[in-house]
Each structure stands twice: as C-alpha cells, then as structure tokens.
Amino acid sequence: MISTLRLQNFRSYKDASFEFTPGVNIVVGPNASGKTNLLEAVLVLARGSSYRVRDAELIHFTKPWARLDGYFEKHNRTLKLQPPDKTFIIDDKPYKRLSLERTVPVVLFEPNHLQLVSRGPEQRRDYFDDLLERSLPAFKPLSNNYKRALAQRNALLKHGRRQASQQLFAWNVRLSELGSQIALARQNLVDEINQTLAKNYSQIAKRKSKLEIKYDSQFSINNYASRLLSKLESNLNTDLERGFTAHGPHREDFLFYLEGQTVNHTASRGETRSLLLTLKIFELILIEKARDQKPIFLLDDVFSELDGSRRQALVGRLKKHQTIITTTDAESVLEYFSESHNLIPLR
Fold it and tell me: Can the peptide bond before residue 295 be classed as cis, meaning omega within 30 degrees of 0?
C-alpha cells in the first residue's frame, strides 16, 4: 500500500503532497484539475513507466526535471527524471530500471479499457501481453526477444531477395521458436481466464450467461513452431513484396464470445461493460496470486461509465484492496461507501 506521495514538476504539479489510507481513497475535482496525473504518478512510481506517454512528457513543460517520492508500506521509493537519465531509488539503493520483483503490483481501470472489445487486435494483444508481463517474470524478455527478431527479419525483407535469402532462414527459425512460446503463454492465460469468466460475468450481469475468450491463433498450439516456420518459408515472396512479416503472434487476436456470438458485433453497451469489469476482477486475482501481494487498485473516472448494479459489483471488490478512485462527481461515488473513506479534493 502507498501512504504518502510527493510530486515535483510532474505533469501539472509543481510541488504537491498527498496522504492515502489503506482502504478507499476518493480523489474529486473538476476536469483538468490533475486527477488522472495523480493516479498516473502512483502507477509510474510503482511500476516504473507511464501507461500514456514517454518519460520526457511526464515532466512539467517549463521544467528540466521531475521527481516522485512515495512511502509504500515498508519502504521508500523515489523516481528522478532528467532526460535522458532516469533513476529509481528504493531504500537508498539506486536502479536504472525496475525488474518485476522490484515493482509494486498495481491494477488500473480507466475509460479506454472499456473500448477493448471494439478496438483493433493490437490493443487486445497489448492488454493480454501486459498481463503476462506482470504475472510471468520470463514473459517480458521473451516478448522483447521476439520483437527484436521480428525487426531484424523485416529489415532483411526490405533489402530484397538477394541480400535477404542468405540470412532469412536463421531468423525464420528464431522467430518460430520464440513465437511458439508466446502463443503458448497466451493460450494458457486464456484457459485460466475462462475457468471463472462466465461465473463472474453472470454474477455481475445478474443472469446466467455463457462467456468465453478465444485466442485466435493462426496455427495449432501443439505444433505452432513448425507450422509458423513452414509458413514463413512458403510466404517469402509475399513478405518480400510487402516488406514485412505477415504471420506470427504479432498478427493474432483475442476474441470474446457471449452466448456463442462475437461480442463486438452483438453485445449491448451494458454487456460490454460487464465483460470489462469481469476482466478487471480477474486481473486483480491474477496479479495477487502471481505476486503473493494484494495490488493497489486505481480507477480513473470509471464510476460514471457504470450503472448502479455494476458499480455495486465493483464496490464489492474494492473492500479487499487499497483503492484510489478519481471522479468529478463525489456524490455518485460516496453513496456506495457508507464505511470510512479518505476524500482528497482537488481544485
């Protein structure tokens, strides 16, 4: 849990300090008052990077540096930003980057997540791969190695057949091996989600429903590497003409099915919101299980996007976690918290 936070030259803040309680913290203020920036500061200090922008854009536009200082339960954390330098200090020890073990588990729920179903496959790949990076220590280096191999193969494709043909086979093999591991990790994650997805969704939607996620893989997981290698070889002429690799995990998708129909074509606005809320509840459980530690739950103005029953379902989960909620309308949130809460007003 985070108890104190100081922001210096961070986003819209020149110098401000905040205190948080272990339970529900409600940040209320008008638009452009810094609510999202405050939430982002907690996430950056906990995880090491922003979900919105590059490091340089976190600094107040008139200043050359930014600094965050926070106390997380049993240790102090500091982030110093002065591009191109970025330094984390945890209990007086400096680090240039944070490994998974040195991050603080955090789950973010913000309005853009409600468009996960309707947006393109890249957004869905990013969401589920981010889940894997935060729950499996080996997945991030695996993903980075795949991206490097893909970039190398695409660079060779742009040089033309004569120069590419001598080196492409080695990169095809490398890409197939790494791609197979990524596909397997994604499929295992989907299988785990599906174990509880329909049950949790039915509880939120107040009716029994059949809901599942399918990893829309181009090849069978059982022989993915050999099938992808064969496809890369047979599709070489097309890839050379286009100048990029058309097959592999970077081109695959995750599909949602409600009562056997794809959600993005048939689901109502309410059904889509129930689905995303169900996913966020799973995310809380997954991160807590993987890290053996309850994550901080950050909610950026999503109460206004949910109706009464879905708000109530969300509130039931908040009681178990330290939560920081932003809102422009305190009354719409406070009515769900008759017990103690910490109100943080911004102007």
Answer: no
Query: Looking at residue 196, what DSSP letter applies?
Result: T
Residue 34 CA to residue 27 CA, distance in Å, equals 10
Instruction: Locate 37 and state its tokens.
Output: 């920036």
Residue 8 carries which side chain, given as an amino acid letter? Q
Angle value at C-alpha 325, between 319 and 328, nearest 5 degrees: 140
- Give tens-digit pLDDT for 232-286: 999 998 999 999 999 999 999 999 999 999 988 788 888 888 899 899 999 999 9
| Greater model confidence, 305 or 43 | 43
Q: Determine the longest span between alpha carbons in the chain, in angstroms.
A: 72
| Pairing assessment for the beta strands 85-90 and 93-95 based on DSSP bridges | antiparallel
| Confidence at 143, pLDDT banded by 50, 70, 90 | very high
Determine the Cα–Cα distance for residues 10 and 3; give it in Å rounded to an integer: 19
Distance of CA 20 to the CA centre of its chain: 23
DSSP annotation of 59:
B
Structural domains for the chain? 2-105+295-345 (3.40.50.300), 117-266 (1.20.1050.90)
| Tally of residues, the chain | 347
Amino acid at 328: T
CB 301 within 8 A of CB 328: yes
For residue 297, give every residue at least 6 positions away whose Cβ sits within 8 Å of its Cβ, in sequence order, or none: 106, 107, 109, 284, 317, 318, 321, 322, 323, 324
- Integer angstrom CA distances of residue 255 from 190, 221, 262, 275, 315: 10, 16, 7, 12, 28
Rounded CA gap, 276 and 300, in Å? 14
Give the DSSP H/E element, type plus range, for residue 249: none
Over the stretch 69-113, which tens digit does the pLDDT of each residue have?
Answer: 999 988 999 999 998 999 999 999 999 999 999 999 999 998 888
